[in-house]
Amino acid sequence: MELQKPNLMILPFLMMMYMPQANAQTSDDAKKLLDTLFSASGYNTAVRPTYEQTKPTNVSIDFFLVSIINFDSQKETLTTSGYLYISWTDYYLQWTPETYGNLTYIFIPQDNVWKPDISLLNGISEVKGLGSNSLFVRVDNAGTVYWLPFGIFESTCGIDITYFPFDIQTCDLTFNAWSYFNEHVNVTKGMMRNISLEMYKENSEWSIVDTSVDRLQGEVQIVFSIKLKRKPLFFVLNVIVPVMLLSILNICIFIIPAKSGEKASFSVTVFLALAVFLTMVTTLLPQNSENVSFIGIYLVITVVFSTVIVTLTLFILRLNFRDVDEDPIPSWLIKLHGIVIKIRCRRHTKVHPATQSQDEVSNFDTGYTVSSAEATSGFTESNSPSQDEKSKITWNHICNALDFIFFWIFLLATGITIVTVFSICIENAVQ
Ligand SMILES: *[C@@H]1O[C@H](CO)[C@@H](O)[C@H](O)[C@H]1NC(C)=O
Ligand SMILES: *[C@@H]1O[C@H](CO)[C@@H](O)[C@H](O)[C@H]1NC(C)=O
Ligand SMILES: *[C@@H]1O[C@H](CO)[C@@H](O)[C@H](O)[C@H]1NC(C)=O
Ligand SMILES: *[C@@H]1O[C@H](CO)[C@@H](O)[C@H](O)[C@H]1NC(C)=O
């Protein structure tokens, strides 16, 4: 199999080099042959070259992909370069080599022979014939014509961005003999099972997973399908990782003690950073309203979280500056505070049953990296709850408790969102 493939590709060139063992052929032989084939017999390029015009001409087509030039996710177009390997038998171009000095094949400008008007059906540019008259076709003495038109093919390709950037897309290049029907031209697959990738040069954004060739029954067309997989590294590094880091910063707002006076400015800064970043990101994402990508949903969720966090922060700040004497703390908030203290105490005593230095207070909670000074004001009481604690509770303590609760809620929510979105996407990518 490995050996056969290169043979097929360079078949015309190999034949050109090795087949004419007959040394005797001269340019006069070639002239004589061309005169006989074209002038004397009155060759007409409009006549389909089968003797019985009721029988279709068999045209076999192979596709050699050379490169993927561009796959535009937003315009949904695939630009490829490659060439077709088209061959058929021309009844009028047959000769006996012995008569012409053992001449077994000749080259003829492509417009001088009949050829099927093969064109790209799902192209986006103006329909024009393949190749050009500067290209030659090769004809051998049995009348087999080989035509290898090279081209840049711009085709439409519907894109499903659901799993972006871990998506796999299938693009078709549909070729047909435009003017002919089934009873005139029988388009068939060539010798290759699928698109030939021998000449293929790897693309930096897409890798080819699979290729296939299909001939639609009852249609004069042949469909070459390319299954492409996006290389996600660029988007992971430039979109996903920064957004994840920003969403972690977002949660860290709850670490800042209300007294520091930095909470509001920090939360708004993070929100703005996220917003600026998202405007950049949307230019990278495929713009498609038909299906929404999971990554788009993730970005929206991140923005929603950020908005909620800013709102909550402002609300907590307001509470922080309330006076217990003017606004008594509602009993449910005191209960909540009690629960938080219990959770934090239990976890703390498990690790450090005896000692309670201020350093430990700042190290104790994974999320809370408050300075020792802040810890005394905010968190130390919670580590040593006394009996008359209730009377000492201020709005500041409530705020600390709320911060603690929201920190864990949003950490959990962010974690769940990230794990869900990416497990769905990566699961699809692995399939
Ligand atoms: C086309 O191929 C079919 C099946 O291989 C064959 O029967 C038919 O004779 C061919 N047509 C011509 C014009 O050679
Ligand atoms: C053509 O080839 C045959 C056999 O290879 C040889 O006998 C003959 O002399 C050749 N004819 C010419 C004109 O060279
Ligand atoms: C078209 O070609 C295929 C494959 O060579 C062959 O099986 C089929 O019979 C042909 N159809 C006609 C109408 O000749
Ligand atoms: C070509 O087709 C064969 C079988 O149809 C398949 O095993 C192989 O993976 C295909 N090659 C490519 C590059 O798609």
Q: Could you explain how this protein is built, in words?
A:
By secondary structure, the chain is α+β, with helices and mostly antiparallel strands. It has two domains: 228 residues, Acetylcholine Binding Protein, Chain: A (Distorted Sandwich); 197 residues, no CATH class. The protein is 41% helix and 20% strand. It has twelve helices and eleven strands. The N terminus is likely disordered. One 2-acetamido-2-deoxy-beta-D-glucopyranose binds next to strand 9.
* CATH topology value of the largest domain: Acetylcholine Binding Protein, Chain: A
Structural class: alpha+beta
Task: Note the overall shape.
Answer: rod-shaped
The CATH class designation of the largest domain is: Mainly Beta
Terminal Cα span = 27 Å
Topology as a string of helices (H) and strands (E): HHHEEEEEEEEEEEHHHHHHHHH
Q: Identify low-pLDDT runs.
A: 1-10, 12-22, 351-387
Radius of gyration: 37 Å
In round numbers, the mean pLDDT is: 83
Q: Classify the beta-strand content into a percent band.
A: 15-25%
As a percent range, the share of helical residues equals 40-55%
Count of discrete structural domains: 2
Structural features:
2 domains, 431 residues, Acetylcholine Binding Protein, Chain: A, 12 helices, alpha+beta, single chain, disordered N terminus, binds 2-acetamido-2-deoxy-beta-D-glucopyranose, 4-stranded antiparallel β-sheet, 7-stranded mixed β-sheet
Write the layout of secondary structure elements.
Blueprint: H1 4-9, H2 11-18, H3 27-40, E1 57-72, E2 77-89, E3 105-109, E4 118-120, E5 136-140, E6 144-147, E7 150-156, E8 168-177, E9 185-189, E10 206-215, E11 221-230, H4 233-251, H5 263-284, H6 294-320, H7 331-351, H8 358-364, H9 372-378, H10 380-383, H11 389-392, H12 395-430
Bound molecules: 2-acetamido-2-deoxy-beta-D-glucopyranose (NAG) (4 copies).
One 2-acetamido-2-deoxy-beta-D-glucopyranose binds next to strand 9.
